[in-house]
Amino acid sequence: MKTQRRTGVLWLALYLLFALAPLSLMLFGERPMGREFEREISVALGFTGIGLMTLHFAMTARIRALKEPFGSDVVYAFHRRMGYITLALWLAHPIILFLRFEWALGLLNVLEAPWRARWGVFSVVALLALVVWAVLRRRLRTEYTLWRVSHGVLALAAMAMVMTHAYMVGRYVGTPLKQGLWIAYGAISLLLVGYLRVWKPWQMLRRPYRVVEVRPEQGNVYTLAVEPVGHAGLRFEPGQFAWITARHSPYASQEHPFSFASSAEQQGRIEFSIKELGDFTATVKDLPPGEPVYVDGPYGALSPDRHTDADAIVLIAGGVGIAPMMSILHTWADRGDPRPVTLLYGSPEWEGVAYRDELERLQGAINLQVVHVLERPPADWEGERGYITREILERHLPGRDTRFRVYLCGPLPMLTFVSRALREAGVPDDRVELERFDLV
């Protein structure tokens, strides 16, 4: 755990270094003199925005060493928030010029403006389109693969155009050292895209899997079992997930994230838990045995293997958030771990409780207490009702003299609600690990 924290601090320090390095282009060495303060501020904001843009390629390149200390969901959430800041910086650069200098408005006329200005305008338009489309994707019901491909194309186009704009302006990249740094940032962006879109798919093609079975569970959930073909498979920690590609080449950008449901102690065969929610998930049940699939993973930080200081663990799941918990429980059973486990599982109704029978079986195999919390329970229901509240937590959490850690996974509204309830119940934030199903 301490090693992961140190690694996380190191990544954050490197993030700040790379984000601010382009700004050094205008702060050190030769630079134009006698220019207005507003113009200098405008340029400073623009250079900082370019530095941030380069780092977005790193955050989305699925570099396991980068995501490991934080978890993929945290990195993607940070990527989205920094996207707004990046756009604000890119917009601030021309807006300041427009407000201060009348001649600057003429640069918007892309038919007559010099090409250095055209590339700047085009880059801002591309980034604005990228961010707006990302925000409205679900509302517009844009097909995921189409959006994902266009998202990458717009990002690469915006970066190429803004780099061209700054290079053609030339006032702050006039020395060989500064030109070298500028070229390096562009090359890093291209290399990261190549790593994600060329190198990783090639690696996946070299290590294929095939479908063994697709097993229906309760609650419109399917367990997809696959086995490696010609290689030993992969190792993962209980609670992690992987990206799966089926019916397409890994180069087709058709992968989807799913949690492991099987034990981390199993060799070869691995299982994933997939809830039928539409698009690709609705077709999983039709995958025939022997169908080739490709797996990219593991990812995620929601794993008890990363915290060895707990005498007991509490798993809190809502909906499809039960998937990583099943991997944890199956691993617990295979290891014969004697530590007590409490699972609080929130579901709309009894008939939709996924893995209901398997959870009952596991209660006889390990020291497990399962607490179902139903929003719409049947008339004869004697268990917990409604949502997982502070009162329900206080009834089922281990005693305060027990060192326990909480693992929480589910829809975003549930995570917010339960996190607050845990805090109200006296559970410190540093004892709670959570994962958001909001990667795309």
Question: Which helices and strands appear, and what pairs or packs with what?
Answer:
Layout: H1 2-20, H2 24-27, H3 37-59, H4 64-67, H5 72-100, H6 115-140, H7 144-169, H8 176-206, E1 209-217, E2 221-228, E3 241-246, E4 256-260, E5 270-275, E6 292-299, E7 312-318, H9 322-335, E8 341-347, H10 356-363, E9 368-374, E10 384-385, H11 390-396, E11 404-410, H12 412-424, E12 432-436
Parallel strand pairs: 7-8, 7-11, 8-9, 9-10, 11-12
Antiparallel strand pairs: 1-2, 1-6, 2-5, 3-4, 3-6, 4-5
Helix pairs in contact: 1-3, 3-5, 3-7, 3-8, 5-6, 6-7, 7-8
Explain what you see.
The chain has helices spanning 2-20, 24-27, 37-59, 64-67, 72-100, 115-140, 144-169, 176-206, 322-335, 356-363, 390-396, 412-424; strands at residues 209-217, 221-228, 241-246, 256-260, 270-275, 292-299, 312-318, 341-347, 368-374, 384-385, 404-410, 432-436. The protein is of the alpha/beta class and 440 residues long. The mean pLDDT is 86. Strand 1 (209-217) and strand 2 form a beta hairpin. The chain is elongated. The protein contains twelve helices and twelve strands.
Task: Summarize, please.
The protein is of the alpha/beta class and 440 residues long. It is 46% helix and 18% strand.
Oligomer: single chain
User: Spans of 5+ residues with little confidence (pLDDT < 50)?
Assistant: none
What strand order characterises the main sheet?
A: 1-2-5-4-3-6
By DSSP, the count of extended strands is 12
Radius of gyration: 25 Å
Work out the helix count. Answer: 12
Class by SSE composition: alpha/beta
Largest sheet: 6 strands, antiparallel, barrel
Order of helices and strands: HHHHHHHHEEEEEEEHEHEEHEHE
- Give the amount of beta strand, in percent: 15-25%
Helical content class: 40-55%
